[in-house]
Amino acid sequence: MPSGSAASGFGGVFDLAGYEREIEDRERQSGEPGFWDDPQAAQVAMRRLGELRARVSTWQEVEGQIEDLSTLAELADQDPDLALEVASETTDLIARLDDLELQTALSGPHDASDAILVVHSGEGGVDAQDFAEMLSRMYLRWADKRGFKAELLDSTEGEEAGIKNATIELRGPNAYGLTRSEIGSHRLVRLSPFDAAHRRHTAFALVEVLPEIEGDAEIVINPDDVRVDTFRSSGAGGQHVNKTDSAVRLTHLPSGVVVTCQNERSQIQNRESAFKILRARLLERRLREEADERAKLKGDHTAAGFGNRIRSYVLHPYTQVTDHRTDLSVGDAQAVLDGALDPFVNAFLHQQIGPGQDEAKAEAGA
Fold it and tell me: What is the pLDDT of residues 283-306, one digit of tens each?
């Protein structure tokens, strides 16, 4: 069987030959003089090479499984026990192919990166602030289910209940690629526990997801461009936060981006976390500007991403969570709020695969 034939046979979702050529190019570049003169860039390149080798190795293994099953299937007509074995292995192979297909939607330049997720309360007053806290809890529980390391970097409490915003760092394989499915406006419909008449209220929260980058490989921040202010933390943390100026506010003067961090007990830790968030915000800003420029050149109309309502959580008069992009609905709203997000994440990724293939085919035929 020719190299890449199995991968090509599944809708062209994996360009095995293309990845093999990229591996050859990167291996040649890694052996060139001066490759390690920029250690950070070299580490990024070597990490990419390792990812490519792992993907190609996996698909070559799948090709072998397909060939073995094809051979066994020809013999299964004469052996009922062998037919059962083929059926079982085929089911396992289909599940593995489905998982690998999802991985093709995680091939963006930053999808493998860790992520910084920010939840903002929106319209709806105290209900919106309570909803923002519900979403923060949901993401922390989802991260725990996936085996991610999650850390609350910053949060601001609401006046009566809930939070005004929260910043969460998620560390794990493809954290950004998976979590970017959550970008947008989320809506909650329920009987408000803060309304004396117990009427139905609608509240909104906004979710941002930023790719976290290592060091200054992509975003270089001039220290002279950043104003650093310190102040006393206002959140939970005991007496310590009321006695020392441990909170940090960074203002990036050229862009006007402002970042605060106050959840850590030391000013040094808050400063490190704040610079981490600032780098992510500057990268996100650059990526958005590049996307806007591409849209202008192609004549596309794109709606503002963060303003789009992507999901509704209805707790009254029935319980249902509906994703408005994929039309997926789940009746157990409490399970979703307890972190059962994978069905929505997977549906989003499946949706991303189709348009990319169509566009690639159109460009190839042009």
Answer: 888 888 877 776 676 565 444 334
